[in-house]
User: Fold Minor tail protein from Amycolatopsis eburnea.
Amino acid sequence: MTAPVYSYQIADLASNRILEDVVLTGVKFNKPLNSSGKFSASWKLGEDTAHLDAYDLTMPCRRVVYAFRDDRPIWGGIIWTRAYDSKTQTVAIGAGDWWSYFDHRKVLPVFAPNGTLTQVAALALTYTATDQNAIARGLVAAAQAHTGGSIGVVPADTATSGQLRDRTYNGYDLTATGDALTNLCNVINGPDIVFDVLPGASAPQRVIRVGTPSLGAQGSAHRWEIGGNTSAYAWPSDGTRMATRAFATGQGVELGLPIAVSEDTTKYAGGYPLLELEGQYGSAEDVGTLTGHAQADQQVGRMPVVLPKLLVRGDQSPTAAEVDRGDDGWLTIPPDRFHKTGWEGPVRVVDIAFAPGGDAERVELTMAPLLDGVA
Assistant:
């Protein structure tokens, strides 16, 4: 099977006008679920780029880079860093997908400039009994409603989840929009959220996709087997975030600080100690929302976890074009020196990392956390 062809374009952030096709090397980028993807590459300047203004084309915060796989847009994001080395005449480019922009924005309604010192603190953005998908889209829309705040991200659809939420984002909290989206994802039955690119008329379209509540193909037929379509795997286990008791704090100070607690006492009989963690949720004020956060945090941290990583060939079935964030699948690990009796079970893709190469397409799949061990 012929390896797919990757190509890259630089565009203007504000207008989305394509400025130039560029040849990049050492390209690496990823597409995670519920967080921001990153992109890194090198641009070697030479005779073929003598007519280009590399300084302008790589200007951080003004330019974006798009990656195409066989002429179909697969990644897009804002150039945040660039470093030129005159010795090698190479520009190192670092970018983040559209989520990274909202990490630089606050959850605030539009307000008049040059107001009083207490103006912003008095502002609030409130959602009452609102579908969580609408809240996610509303947060993005609110950020883009400010003068200079629109980067052209639009909803990919209008699907709802059936999960109604109450959220208040107070101006005095200055909550980052990216953090608000993350917190929305992390509550029990919260939605999957990703930012993506789709084919457009003259340039890729920038979109937000929200799950109902999950994204990806549930119960898909994807199968990965070590020694078959998967060349290697990593099994990183982590107990540093295990928690038998989780605290979720809301908005308040000192004796007025609301704190919800969720604890699993069954672990102690199995030899695990009391382990605690705290999550701060400044936009949550009611007991139901805070309790949901505490339960979700404790559920996620109830055991040491492993995020299996698979190294696959992107041109072998299932191909990189067939796998998406959120897809279910089945992993088989034959007996080896680590898994003496082998391992197999259901998995879910939460990150896809690409490293395009001339001879083969290397793709690393990260799976959702699995409980590592039995309580």
Q: What stands out?
A: Residues 287-300 form the longest helix (14 residues). The helical segments are 54-57, 98-102, 132-144, 177-186, 287-300. The chain has a mean pLDDT of 92. The chain is about 10% helix and 40% strand.
